Target: 6-phosphogluconate dehydrogenase, decarboxylating
Amino acid sequence: MGGGLALLFAENGVNVGLSDPSEKMMDQVIEKAENAGYHNKIKKFTDYGALTKYLSKPRLLVFSLPHGSVGDKVLGGLMPHLSKGDIILDCGNEHFANTERRQTKCKDTGIHYLGVGVSGGYQAARAGPSICPGGDEEALKMVIPLLERIAAKDKNGKPCVGIIGRGGAGHYVKMIHNGIEHGMMSAICEAWGMMRKLGMGYEEIGNVFKKWNDSGELRGTFLISIGADLSHKRDSASPSNPLVISQVLDKVVQDVTGEEGTGVWSNTEAIEQHVPAFTLNVAHALRLASAYRGERVQANETSNGGFPAEKLQLQDKEAFIEDLRQATYAACVASYIQGLNVILRADKAHDWNINYANVWQIWRGGCIIQADYISDVLLSARLKSRNREDVNLLFDPKTMEDVRKCYPALRRVVAKAVEADQVAPALSASLEYFKVVTGTDLPTSFYEAELDYFGSHMFDKKGEKGTGAPTEGKYHFEWKPATSQKQEYGKSKL
Ligand SMILES: NC(=O)C1=CN([C@@H]2O[C@H](COP(=O)(O)OP(=O)(O)OC[C@H]3O[C@@H](n4cnc5c(N)ncnc54)[C@H](OP(=O)(O)O)[C@@H]3O)[C@@H](O)[C@H]2O)C=CC1
Ligand SMILES: O=C(CO)[C@H](O)[C@H](O)COP(=O)(O)O
Model:
């Protein structure tokens, strides 16, 4: 990522001082810059003193580092060489609490530390990413013109960058972007898995994804478009020239290795903010289960072969593929709703003053969750208003009209998945999500009664006004009076 960003800045006329523990890596980046004609635009530095002397003041420093202690170490090493007015853009996927801690550390020195989420993968780092900056407004205003130059552009040519909010808001919104990404990826891979069990070939599925990406509610969805593309890629270095996808093992590990943090943090945050995020939680659980392949093999053997998916028996394959498309769309919408609701709660809790119009703009192009229909038709009207009350798409008539339209297809797909032991956690969770969050007669009446029975946790009564808020109920019923140990067990047992 860092190398791509360095080349992108150089391409935009910026003189770049590069610093990395590996000189070889720096030499490679410089060679690429030279080959691209950006002569002497990138210079390498092996110590921070020389680097900071090279940079003109106020200095602009861009971090592209692994999350956690590395950022602290690099910041600590740089700080003695920096001065008031210098600006640091932390372009990694850092935890927002680390960002805010570093902002506090820098505050008295006049150095600005900005949390700048960057999305679109390493290709976008080179070609122009979606950029999600947060922090001190004065410093943000200084860097926005440069960021606008390097950012991805939406289809109207407008840069996919904008001030997100105070403190760690930029990194927070990027973290939730990744949570939404995981919900969408889970639904898409589940649909892919079902098409495989329909007996479809990899390239045939790629062609279906291409159609989905070309028109309808999944049009312009980056993750679908790369799915279409990757389905046709062959490894020409291998003698049998196989499709690469046919060789990829079913293992997603970066939550477990800690290589990336956003999968864990986005789910932790959904729980911390008390937001029901069925799709995101379950998508994460699928990643976790997939990571431990060895344990899955062991459990498979222990259970005499596990519960492998059967071939899907269908009357009408084309109709089922259309159901899959609608179900995938519904799960993508569920992911967006859940993610936005986490952001909304956190925004209120931290008072970040998030600019939702800018959140909309940065998700319009260049990022992994880019989904043109969702952006143009669902998010546009709601987020552009910048009104917090509009952010919850469960209250948006157009979103809910779409959900209602796709719900039967989602239900048919989940029912088929259950029938044939297909893996469909995010699709199933999305079905449950819509059922539950719009439900007005949940079985939690019984749950609440049991809680009151054993814990005197109180309940509200049906038919009373003013019971919509998540506040403790007013009633306790003495379901079973507490009795002494003697009364409970009888003398003989004591
Ligand atoms: N990969 C992606 O698609 C995306 C990644 N990101 C985020 O961008 C950041 C970078 O990602 P990525 O490029 O994939 O990760 P890499 O691990 O490839 O790059 C991290 C860089 O940090 C350097 N580094 C490690 N430790 C130190 C240290 N102590 N001091 C100075 N530099 C150090 C590494 O140096 P070296 O290895 O040379 O020793 C390497 O150049 C991460 O926060 C990631 O979450 C964001 C969006 C997309
Ligand atoms: O931030 C990203 C995209 O938005 C990076 O690609 C990141 O490496 C994805 O990893 P994870 O699936 O663990 O979030």
Notes: DSSP finds 21 helices and six strands in the chain.
